[in-house]
Amino acid sequence: MAAFACTCPNEQAGCTTAECDQAAQQLRAWAARCAGFFTQETNPGARVHIGRGGRFGHGYRRGRARSPVVTAGYNAPSYWTGLAPRARVPCFVVTTAKTAKSTKTVLSGIQPTGEPHLGNYLGALRWWVDFQDRYDAFYCVVDLHALTVPGDPEVLSKATLTMATFLLACGLDPERCTLFVQSHVHEHAELTWLLECSASMGELARMTQFKDKTSKGGEEAARLGFFAYPVLMAADILLYNADLVPVGDDQRQHLELTRDLAQRWNTRYGETFTIPEAAIAPAGGGARIMDLQDPVHKMSKSSGSDAGLIFLLDDPKVIERKVKRAVTDLDPPGPGAVRWDPKGKPGVSNLLELLAALKGGKPAEIAAGYESYGRLKADAAEAAIETLRPLQDRYRELAQEPASVRAVLAEGAVRASEVASRTLERAQAAIGLLPF
Ligand code: AMP
Ligand code: TRP
């Protein structure tokens, strides 16, 4: 599958330091793992060139829109490079051919409710970052979704900007993807109505998220928008003709509904929508990170306590404490106690999945290297801290520049509307609305 050649680790600077050699080896390993990424199909004639360079990352790429340069280094997220995130590796990787994206389109969204947590990052956001180089990618902060539950209007607008800042800090790059706020593109609400008029009460009442949440709060009190929310999500996806939707495992059923709605529409009114597919991490790969205090339930912003959640901005000491206090399973440590068994040993399995998703590898194989819960916890905490550190640094920088973040969102909304308005017009014509 490898479609490129790695060349001359030290060519550019003629550097012979051990640090540089080691970094070059690590980058070669990274490049090998990315073999599926830089195929000849998506990137004809690609060569991965490993060279020595200075500081790069977000700033480095600015002004080089769609340039043929792909970089990896100490600023790059560690799940991407496989390097220790704080290892100040003075190297970069350059493809000599233009990284042509596949013609597929990706869309995903995240609600601006609360600070994102490690579950969001591992289950969804790191894939968003990865996909922006492979596909035509649209990502939105879904503020209309946040209206489905009670909330404070002032908090919502701040949280929307904060979430967009987080997404940029995670590595979304406005030159490589379209980042926007859902309510800035009015077509989302309009297509929702058309889709609602072809969805049934029965199919929405079967959504487990609605059933779970209303079993606690009562159906009577639930907002109509909360009941209908999966249709808004379907509109988000269908407006952009998305082929792939990177989400965590909890969204699987909503994706199925989206597919059903699109297929039914196409049959009733003629070919209008692309049928999307969910892109969910493989089992054990971070698709469902569990609450550290309650490992049979997913890590969730709506959990009653913060003790089982690692937030992306948590201080290293806080992360260490939360992971140390994570619930492990009842059998005593010793040979065989650390094993991958999500049903029988949910606490330990969750820590293994965290470690696997953060550092690469399979949870069952990682388990073989541990006998004590303590060491497993220490390693999981360290991996989380090291992954989040560069992201936290970037967040703090970007949070000082709210006007730049808003400018990114404004430009994103314009780009998103171009696509969304065409799809909405097609849908309006198909369902028989008189053209304006
Ligand atoms: P939300 O915070 O509900 O808007 O979710 C944003 C994205 O994160 C969605 O794609 C979810 O599927 C994903 N996600 C949320 N919680 C988790 C979790 N505990 N593990 C993995 N993915 C998650
Ligand atoms: N419903 C998703 C969640 O709660 C968020 C979301 C809204 C979404 N619209 C979307 C995800 C479109 C993917 C695609 O996590």
Number of helices: 16
Instruction: Specify the CATH class of the largest domain.
Output: Alpha Beta
With strands numbered from the N-terminus, the spatial order across the biggest sheet is 1-2-3
Number of domains: 3
Bound molecules: adenosine monophosphate, tryptophan
CATH superfamily descriptor of the largest domain = HUPs
- The helical percent reads 40-55%
Low-confidence stretches: 1-17, 34-99
Q: Based on DSSP secondary structure assignment, what is the total number of beta strands? A: 8
**In angstroms, what separates the terminal alpha carbons?**
51 Å
Rg for CA atoms: 23 Å
The CATH architecture classification of the largest domain is: 3-Layer(aba) Sandwich
Oligomer designation:
single chain
Structure description:
There is one protein chain. The protein is mainly alpha-helical. It folds into 3 domains: 6-95, no CATH class; 105-285 and 400-431, Rossmann fold, CATH 3.40.50; 316-399, Tyrosyl-Transfer RNA Synthetase (Orthogonal Bundle), CATH 1.10.240. Helix content is 47%, strand content 8%. The chain has 16 helices and 8 strands. The protein has helices spanning 18-33, 58-61, 78-81, 118-131, 143-146, 153-170, 187-196, 201-205, 208-217, 224-239, 252-269, 316-324, 346-359, 363-367, 373-399, 402-431; strands spanning 6-7, 48-52, 91-95, 105-110, 136-141, 178-181, 244-246, 277-279. The protein has a 3-stranded mixed sheet, covered by helices on one side. A 3-stranded parallel sheet has the order 4-5-6. Strand 7, helix 11 (252-269) and strand 8 (277-279) form a beta-alpha-beta unit. Helix 6 crosses helix 15, helix 6 packs across helix 16 and helix 7 (187-196) packs parallel to helix 16. The longest helix is centred in the C-terminal third of the chain and has 30 residues, at 402-431. It is globular, with a radius of gyration of 23 Å. The model is unreliable at 1-17 and 34-99 (pLDDT under 50).
